[in-house]
Amino acid sequence: MTLHRPTSAFTLIELMLSIGLGSLILYTAFAGVRTASQAITVSNQLSLENAMLRAGYFQVQNDLDFWTSLDDPNNPSNQKLRGYPNTGPTNSPSGMPFTPMSLICNGANQENPPSAIKAGSPLTYGEIKPRPGPYPSAKDTDPLDPWEKDTGFDPTVSWTPSDPRTWCQVNPAEKSSGSGWGGVTPSIPSVLFGRYAIFSNVSATPALNSWTVTNPTTSTSYSVGYSPPMVIPHLWYPNQIQFFLGALGYQAMCEYLPPNALYAYYMGASGSTSAGGLSLLATMPQWGSWGGFRNSDGGQVTACGIYRETYSTSFGYFNPWAPADPTGEPGIFWRHYMHFDSDYTAFNGGSGVQWGAVGLQDLLAHTAFPQNLLPLEPTNWPGVYTTVGRLVKCDHFVAVAKINRRSSITGSVTQISFLGLGTTLRGARMQRKDPNDTSGGSGWAHWDDDPAAMTTTPGPNPGQGNQPNLDSPTP
Amino acid sequence: MQVITIAPSVPRRSRHQRGTILIIVAGLSALLASMSLVFLARMRSDSEETQVVMQLAQAKIMLAAACNYVQETSRLGWDANFPYYQGAPAHPSAIIPPPQTLPNGSGVLSLSGTILSSPSPATMPAHQETYGWIDVRDGSIGPNVRAPSPATLPYSTYAVWSTALVESNGSGWNRPAWPAIGSVAICPMYVMQRPPYATQLTAVYNPINTTPGNALFGLPYIQYPDPMPVVSNGWPQQATSGTVTGALYDDGQNGATLTDFVHGDPTPRQQTTGKSWFRVYRDGPATFVITCGSGATMGYTSYAEAASVGGPSAAAMFNNDPGFFNSLAANELRIWYRIEWSPSVMEQTYHNLQHGDVGVEHNLMWPANASHTWSVGNRTQTWTKNPVGTIRWVERLVTQPTYY
Question: Which of A9-23, A444-458, B47-61 has the highest mean pLDDT?
């Protein structure tokens, strides 16, 4: 019997089926690989997006603590807020938020005697103490009290209310307008409650004025006389207010002065004062360049503190990397000496850089200017922009941190926004080494609380003395 | 005999098919495994990095807590009878027993441990408000309590602090007890089972009866105490019987059981431990070095300090093992700040009665938080209460300070 051996080749049908099945298997395998590859790619991309969001979070936290978006002590090209034009709003050397105090706190603005700091050791650069008692009482204030004659900023003395020199002696009801001197309301005689300019003044020998007030009903005239010389017992407080009005910018002034300070002071009579000697810069709405210091909320012409001054308007710290102002607008220096509508007046359209909705938008655009976290990143990476906008509103100092991340997959934008707590301006200035120190250079100032650090030669390393910072007096 | 194979090709082809499928399945499995591994690795690294984000957030929250602590303790929480009662709280920490609590009727302790006298109003805790870290009355170092009027001695005579070096960090740093200059407060921020002076959240203890015909209908009889302590002390409430007594009010006088109203039950809630803490080093009259921590060391700088300051109970928390403490410390985040407290609070000019050019001059000024302004507007600074001073500045320290 002969048996037929099976056919060793494929039939056409078998071949087609096997090719089809093989293709299906290969397609499935490739699809699996491709899907896996895509999944891994998306996973990596999403992970990268999350990582970038975290990086943005760390960046804003770092900025909240070290202010490097406004001033980088290790990068001289990013120290644009350290300038000090010779004339500011008070016609004296004025600076911006990171101007070394030693540059503007000199000459007439220096401690008395010059370079002296009162409470702490000169080498401590951080030791802050109250003025030693006992203090002169209010009734027997010593006009020769050397502490009253101090001017400028002493970083070693705490502003203690037990010290009479810290008391504001301005009459809070006195108006900077009135009859007798350019008054707009003749029915209000100036200094109705007395001539407070003789209690406190920026000058120990101010030239005050005499004038005549006429009662509009009886036509009776009264003489408001003044006969120098007059001993002015309180000089320190008005000098502090005047100094800070032209020192580091208006928001910096709000930070450096205590929260209960009244921003008013008397001067010798001039075109810059009311009849009673009140500084018009401090008390008259819109008096001065670029809207001046005082806002016009309520038409107030009396002394005010931080709340009234920041209720309808705000001050801010302006990012020097924001687009420069067009010609005719204030520029980075004067921006720190302006107020911007930020409340009920910001509902209006407004005109000019600081008024109405335009002013509010301008304030936010320049204080909260978003900066690219990684300018040189690959184009397929998610973009991250961060900002910490610092401004003061209704006596609240706010630091608005924002992280914007754009997804490179979907293009969607995710924003995280929160109010941060961290270093204040004065703290940021104490972090930075005074470049005008005799040892030269810039960078971070070394500080330690080891007593040895307060008695040895300053240096950047542990064990060396604390280094002077941006708040230190003239070396 | 010849063996006839009936279907010799079938087994060969079947083996080939099984091998192909095996390869494909193995490949797909490898793909799935690699994908899973990638996902897991990514998730793990994301989780680890996010943990740092959380730690930083918690540490920054500790900065806010520390500032609040410095503000409040400038005026609150001190004992007028210091040192007889040792100026509690030495450390606002549950792991520290109430300061030298006695007394069980036997007396109270001095700093040196000597029994001074029997409990009496003159020696028992008497919490008074103080006048700031720098006394606003004369600029002396505070906190100081009230003084007889007229004061014949400096206000610092009535200080709640002492310069006596009674504490050590276990490594050679001897320091005074909090709140003296040079002292440290250690504040682990877990949630207590029941904090001191805890009251119930009940909003209305004496609701007006609304059932017509009821004997109590329509009138506020105020039958029951309001508020009521959380601790069940037998006071009557909600139609229950009971008596208002001093039971479980302050067991500090009766053995410090820590189950009373005054002391509360400071036992940590389990899920809140090991999260975050802060410590405050008073380096000047009103300047403080704040350490913000996110981790499980409870605010101790080292195991030696835990054993020295916290005693055996603190050491036991770390298994009596310095190595265990060090591993905890290595995984936590610590950042340092320096702050200055100021007694200054809100200025008063938020509204002068006639502050404009309106033909009238008036001295009337609406002060901050003036209640009579509530009816006419919400510009009142009621919402900016700060009766315990303010923080003048905050500085993140670039490097770790020697003392903190």
Answer: B47-61
Write out chain B residues lying below 8 Å of A33, CB-based: 31
Mean pLDDT (chain B) is 78
**Which residue matches tokens 């309180």?**
A234
User: Are A177 and B401 in contact (CB < 8 Å)?
Assistant: no
Residue with tokens 């009238």: B360
- ipTM of predicted assembly, 2 dp: 0.91
Contact state of A54 with B53 under an 8 Å Cβ cutoff? yes
Give dist(CA B178, CA B309) in Å, integer. 12
* Alpha-carbon dihedral B211, B212, B215, B219, rounded to 10 degrees: 80
Strand partners, B341: B391
Write the residue in B20, B361, B396 that is nearest to A175 by C-beta.
Answer: B361
- Please determine, for residue B108, whether its predicted confidence score (pLDDT) is greater than 50: no
- Enter the DSSP assignment of B46: H
Residues of B in contact with A299 (CB under 8 A): 355-358
- pLDDT tens digit sequence for A111-126: 554 445 555 554 456 7
Answer yes or no: are the C-beta atoms of A160 and B134 closer than 8 Å.
yes
Tokens of A246: 């032209």
Q: What is the pLDDT of residues B5-38, one digit of tens each?
A: 554 454 555 555 567 778 878 887 888 888 888 8
State the nearest Cα–Cα gap between A408 and chain B, in angstroms.
18
Q: Which tokens is A216 given?
A: 């509009």
Report whether A285 contacts A301 (CB < 8 A). yes
What DSSP state is assigned to residue B393? E
| Helix (H/G/I), strand (E/B), else coil: A382 | coil
Q: How far is CA A347 from the centre of its chain?
A: 24
Question: Per this entry, what is the length of chain A?
Answer: 475
Bridge partners of B78?
B128
CB hemisphere CA count around A277 (13 angstroms) = 27
| DSSP state at residue A303 | -
C-alpha A160 chain-centroid distance: 23
At residue A126, what are phi and psi to the nearest 5 degrees? 150, -15
- The more confidently predicted of residues A28 and B377 is A28
Q: Are B256 and B263 in contact (CB under 8 A)?
A: yes
Distance from CA of A304 to the nearest CA of B (A): 6
B70 chain-A contacts, CB cut-off 8 A: none
| A202's tokens | 């920026």
Work out the pLDDT band at A143, boundaries 50, 70, 90: low
Would you state the structure tokens that stand for residue A250, as one six-digit string?
A: 């208006």
Q: What is the dihedral of CA A188, A189, A191, A193, to 10 degrees?
A: -70
Number of Cβ within 10 Å of residue A420's Cβ equals 16
> A89 CB contacts (<8 Å, ≥6 apart)?
A245, A246, A281, A288, A289, A292, A293, A337
Largest CA distance in chain A: 156
Cα A272 to Cα A278: distance, rounded to the nearest angstrom: 8
- The conformational region for residue A87 under phi > 0 = left, psi -120 to 50 = alpha, else beta, is beta
- Burial of A423-455, coded b for 16+ CB within 10 Å and e otherwise, reads bbbbbbbbbbbbbbbeeeebebbbbbbeeebbe
CB atoms under 10 Å from CB of B384, counted, come to 16
